[in-house]
């Protein structure tokens, strides 16, 4: 599970974004870990009715949290986009 600091790192990193339909905010704090292991994704405009938000808990280290979980989530998003595109083509 990693090495811990003697005191938590409480500095926070925040971000936000919006489009014409949604507004979001995210914030993260490293805490007791020796490095930040968690990441997030916010994709507001996958198409005109689909957005994607993900929080990836980095148990096992930053590389594990980011690479494997983001890859799996991206595959799900790709699959959903294929479904949406197919449904749109069927409606035409």
Automatic annotation (TrEMBL):
Region annotated Disordered, chain positions: 1-20
Q: Which molecular function terms from Gene Ontology are attached?
A: metal ion binding; protein serine/threonine phosphatase activity
Pfam families associated with the record = PP2C
- Kindly indicate whether the keyword Magnesium belongs to this entry: yes
Q: Which co-factor is required?
A: Mg(2+); Mn(2+)
PROSITE patterns given in the database record: PPM_1, PPM_2
The protein's superkingdom reads Eukaryota
Q: Which UniProt keywords apply?
A: Hydrolase, Magnesium, Manganese, Metal-binding, Protein phosphatase
What name is this protein filed under?
Answer: protein-serine/threonine phosphatase
């Amino acid at each position: 599970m990693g090495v811990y600091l003697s005191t938590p790192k409480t500095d926070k990193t925040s971000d936000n974004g919006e489009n014409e339909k949604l507004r979001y905010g995210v914030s993260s704090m490293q805490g007791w870990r020796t490095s930040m292991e968690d990441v997030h994704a916010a994709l507001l405009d996958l198409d005109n009715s689909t957005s994607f938000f993900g929080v990836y808990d980095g148990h096992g280290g930053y590389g594990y949290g980011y690479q494997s979980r983001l890859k799996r989530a991206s595959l799900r998003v790709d699959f959903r986009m294929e479904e949406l595109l197919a449904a749109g083509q069927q409606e035409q």
